[in-house]
Write a structure and sequence with these properties.
single chain; 245 residues; seven-stranded mixed β-sheet; alpha/beta
Length: 245
Amino acid sequence: MNNSAKYDFTIIVPVYNEEDNMANLESRLSAYLTEASVSACILFVNDGSKDSSLQLIREVCGRNPHFYYLSFADNRGLSAAMKAGIDYAESRLVGYIDADLQTAPEDFNLLLADADEYPLVLGIRVGRKDSWFKRFQSKFANGFRRMMTGDGVADTGCPLKVMQTQYAKRIPFFTGMHRFLPALILLQDGGKVKQTPVRHFPRVAGVSKFSVWNRLIGPFKDCFAYRWMRKRYINYTIAEHNLNN
């Protein structure tokens, strides 16, 4: 058992070259933990940062008793960071927020209100503060993804999500998986998704890690990979066993 098992909710925070955001992350996340609607902890996943992010994460975790971290040996990408966080989390629920804090940790309480009923509750960004070109890319990519997956989700790129851990651990992970979380939850027996409006803010420090390639071209190719996998996805329910006898 690791320390996350002591909590109801583990918040996964992937970090890649976010040294300028670490002080704000510590302040905002520690404040949220005092008002979270369930017992919660923070799990940073350092994705092979090249700046001082890892050292700052160590210092933050040393000062805050409910903060923990994992660190990759090298850069593996957002989907790998999310998978590692889910793999290591032993709480009943897992959440996700970006280190850029363009969504508010306090809005996790909005999602947690439905987390017992829905295996995935995700935010829909209201009044997005991104550039018009970024909003256009996102709208186009979301529309194409909905057409290909049928998940019915308006804003799968919203970096604020809460999942029941038992469902999250059964997700078939692959590079680009983070864009298909709703569709991958819906593949599972009993999988349901709830969308909840959340606030959105401009990035105040650091730089975006996304480009036209990983917003449009990569997801376009990944949609075909998802459709191939969907036809071959395995579901089963154990009726009985004697392993505990």
